[in-house]
Amino acid sequence: MPDGNRLRSYDTGRGLTAFILFAILAAAAGFVIPLVPESPQVLSGAKLALEVVDRADRIILGCSVAGIVLCVIRKLIRK
Residue 3 above 70 pLDDT? Predict the structure, then answer.
């Protein structure tokens, strides 16, 4: 952000929120798939997307946990 003649950057912490949401999505996909009805066409597409996430849940959870840890470490280092 501009401050007079200097440029300042601020850490808004948006990365941590995204990693947490992806971890929740990956963990909950297997439980949500049977609850999604197939009657509207849009919901069948959402169900298919959840099935893809469910099949790759270990990779997504691993990357999300690594991202959360790195975000926390980065926050601790910057203080």
Answer: no
3-class DSSP state of 46: helix
Side-chain half-sphere exposure of 74, counting CA atoms within 13 A: 12
Q: What is the CA radius of gyration of the chain?
A: 18
Per residue in 57-72, pLDDT tens?
999 999 999 999 999 9
- Strand residue runs (E) in the chain: 2-3, 6-7
Tokens representing 41 are 């066409």
> Which one has a higher pLDDT value, 64 or 8?
64
